[in-house]
Amino acid sequence: MKNTQKYSLSLAGVFSLAFFYLYIEIGTSAPFWQFLTLEIPITEIAKQAETKFNQLQNGEVSNTPDIEFNFDEELLLAVQAQDSAIARTNDFQVAWIDVDYQRSLNENEEIKIGDGENKKQVLYSWKYNTRGEEIGFSLPYIRDSGNLQKIVAADSALIFLAQRGIDTSRVEMAGYKQEKKEDRVDHLFTFESPVDGDSTLVRSLEIKFMGNQITHFATDYEIKTDATEKAGEKWQKYTLIILIVGFWVFIIVFVSVSFVRRLRRDELDLKRGTMAGASMFVLSFAMIAISAYPSKSGIFIGGFFGALFTSIGFLILFVTSHSIARASNPDKVETADLIIGGSFNVREIGVALLRALFFAGICLVVLAGMQWLVTTYFDVQCRPEGDDLWILDFRREAIAGALGKIVQAAFLAWVLFVYFPAAVKSRIVNKNYVSFILMLAFLVFMQNLFFEPELIGFIVALPAAALAVYVVLRFDLLTSILFGFLFYVISDFKYVNLDPQGLADTYGLIMLFGGVFVVALAEYLLFRGRPASDLEHYVPEYVSRIAERQRMLQELAIAREVQKRFLPAHVPDFPGLQIAAICTPAMEVGGDYYDFMKMDDTRYGVVIGDVSGKGVSAAFYMTMAKGIIHTLARKTWQPREILNELNEVFFANSPREVFISVIWGVFDIGAKKLSFARAGHNPLIMHKNQAKEPEFLSPKGLGIGLASGDVFSKTTEEVEIPITSGDVFIFYTDGISEAMSHSGEEFGEDRLRSLVNQHAHLSAEKILESIKSEIDIFAGTAPQHDDFTMVVVKVVD
Questions:
Q1: Above 80 in pLDDT, residue 575?
Q2: In whole angstroms, what is the distance from residue 516 CA to residue 20 CA?
Q3: 3-state DSSP call for residue 609?
Q4: How many independent structural domains does the chain possess?
Q5: Phi, psi of 582, deg, nearest 5
């Protein structure tokens, strides 16, 4: 890589930090963000709640609170739509902060504190608006506090509201509910008051008395909804949700199908996938456990099973996506494979990271700028997703939110930037169509705000989606993954500006130092990392297995070709004999062999053999055996003598684990006899013209190559059989009798005997066709692992 390229990439890394800072500043600068912006730091609100809790506990506190930032999505949209004074101020809460303390009780306290039942824990909860004002609470009931009549409770409620600065002259009772307990009477009052400047809003106040104690108070703003939505408006409102759900259903189905298919074909890197799944399990378990604390069942049961399902899903997604991406565009996968293979100090990884940072920064700035433009100058309403504001939560909740965002970003990056592009490119050749389909997906999933009308969201996301398509099609897979991951994680960082401390807050400082560290790491890899060309590229085990299978398929093709060339091209005519033959190669090519030789005018030789083993080696030894037999047949026609000579030559020139089973027979039409010898082969089937059933002839004989000298020759037996017109002789290999059905049952010699007996009156060709047809029906679609070889000879006048 040239130095100018390195310096350009290094500068891009520096610019990316500026882009991220600009994104955070622009991202929450639109006018509507005022309704979600805190006027005091959330840490100050936490201190207020802690002070109140300490006062109730006589200064003793050992509990960690749950603190969450929340907002009313519908109310936020409503105030944006209203051109009223209230919509231009922040005098009421759209957002609020919930602070919850959960306290365990000892045995003595169980008797005195509760809401009517003995409890092990009680909840203390406070609700604050963005100005840090308390707007609600829920406290445990202290028993033996006395009861109030309804009218007294109502007056007490109004006094309570007045003490909080609420104009009770404008407050009307909107609801009342009384509940009698065994030792007390509870009163629940609901009050409403109008909101100045906006007739569509109403302020709702809820106060609950347990006995004579106010245990619950809540202030909310509600929207008056008199008109019903039209059907068309409903469909438009949920268009984005429908698209998202439809896309995920599509992805789940296709990933599952692809996973099963590739698993069957052994095309998945399950070893590395297991490591990715294990990493996802740790992240998911930590996220769920932190969120569920202090619930032990939530931590261990919910955490384990939730993390298990998440990790299995990511494992399936990881291995399937990687397999499809490697198959569709292997060159783009090389850099990502370096990380998968455990190599990190690599220059190309630094290049990919710097590119991803730069383009993610540009993408976010453009997206934030478009959002600011349309919300500031057009009649458009928008809102964030509540879960995206995790950075405004406090301590434990923020950590859980950050882990959840990492898990979510990993899934989104892997689906949108690995699986989906690879799946599309593997099925569509036209690049324009590929770009269009990717653009549609990115238009949906690169929106980090919800808009009304929803069409605006697609328009706003258009430049970012186009840039994402460019990154996916232009750069390697690692750049695409990092781009997507950084986009989704950093997308939520802008919400740190909703806290008045902004980037000066703890989370902001972590983000700043984290960004500097990542850029510095990328710069280090760029200038100090080893070039990928110096490293051994990671090759998944399944790729090696695929190559081995392809080599075996080539070998089988060669073996089939060899076998085909050395078998007779056609069945010869010989006076007095009808001959039919077949050799159908199986899945695994064996060394089956048959041949015919005219010895003289009255003698005709038939040989059939089966070489041990499969593939090219079996075909080689079959060729060797054929050459030896043809050479020996020029000297003599005697079956026993030929087999003895064949064995001596083969034994001397082949390894001991290789042998051949052979039957050599000579039909002497003049002498009306068949002379044959068998060397460890299947029996010769003979059906005499007048016989009731066929015979299986098995004279003694060892396989060729199993022994030498006298051991072989003394064992080999030659047999002479008189022949007459109508006699049928069948030579076959074990691929006939050992043909398998789907249930694993062999065809067997009994079925073969019955077929020969049934069809012996037919011609040799018809006998062969009948046997072949019956075996095909028996085997069905079960794969056959041995050749189907048979020679039928029928004596005729």
A1: yes
A2: 11
A3: strand
A4: 3
A5: -150, 145
| Strand partners for 132 | none
Tens of pLDDT, residues 705-725: 999 888 999 999 999 999 999
Longest Cα separation, the chain: 133
The boundaries of the domain holding residue 194 are: 37-223
Q: Which CATH number do you get for residue 635?
A: 3.60.40.10
664 contacts: CB under 8 Å, gap ≥ 6: 605, 606, 607, 629, 639, 642, 643, 676, 677, 679
Cα 382–Cα 383–Cα 388 angle in degrees, nearest 5: 145
Name 721's Cβ contacts closer than 8 Å, sequence gap at least 6: 673, 674, 675, 676, 686, 697
Instruction: Please state the pTM of the whole predicted model.
Output: 0.75
Instruction: Report the alpha-carbon distance of residue 733 to residue 772 in Å, rounded.
Output: 13
pLDDT, tens digit, 9 for 90 and up, residues 752-776: 999 999 999 999 999 999 999 999 9
Gyration radius (Cα) of the chain, Å: 42
Confidence band for 106, pLDDT divided at 50, 70 and 90? low
E strand or H helix that includes residue 194: strand 185-195
Same domain as 425, residue 332: yes
Whether the CB-CB separation of 136 and 217 falls below 8 Å is answered with yes
How many angstroms from the chain centroid is the CA of residue 604?
64
Integer Cα distance of 764 and 510 in angstroms: 88
Among the listed residues 474, 482, 385, 489, the one whose alpha carbon sits nearest the alpha carbon of residue 438? 474
In this structure, are residues 218 and 127 in contact, taking their beta carbons and an 8 Å threshold?
Answer: yes
DSSP state of 634: T
